[in-house]
Specification:
Strand content: 25-35%
Distance between the termini: 21 Å
Strand order of the largest sheet: 1-2-3-4
Number of domains: 1
CATH superfamily: BolA-like
CATH class: Alpha Beta
Order of helices and strands: HEEHEE
Helix content: 10-25%
Structural class: alpha+beta
Shape: globular
Largest sheet: 4 strands, mixed
Radius of gyration: 14 Å
CATH topology: GMP Synthetase, Chain A, domain 3
């Protein structure tokens, strides 16, 4: 990751794959939706959607903590906001699928 370039979707994807080995992963850069927003100068906005066995039996907050732990080195380098959809494999096609992402801003 280049510090001059900030954090990229590819950086986030690599960190999540290394830490959590998700079976499905999508990282979306939503920064263009926040142009002009005061926080946009502090970093980029991302949505991550991932399915991971490590999430099985864990509450939403615990799942988000795992994601934040995996991204701990990247967050201070340019992630301003992160929306997370974190599902266990058995939730992917069930009617109890995880609700829309929670968005967290620094």
């Amino acid at each position: 990751m280049s510090q001059a370039m900030g954090v990229t979707a590819e950086d986030i994807e690599a960190a999540l794959r290394a830490a959590l080995a998700p079976s499905e992963l999508e990282v979306q850069d939503d920064s263009h939706l926040h142009a002009g927003h005061a926080g946009a100068r502090e970093g980029r906005h991302y949505t991550v959607r991932l399915t991971c066995a490590a999430f099985a039996g864990r509450a939403r907050v615990a799942r988000h903590r795992l994601v934040y732990d995996a991204l701990s080195l990247l967050i201070p380098r340019g992630i301003h906001a992160l929306a997370i959809v974190a599902r266990a494999p058995d939730e992917v096609n069930s009617s109890t699928a995880t609700p829309p992402p929670a968005t967290h801003e620094r």
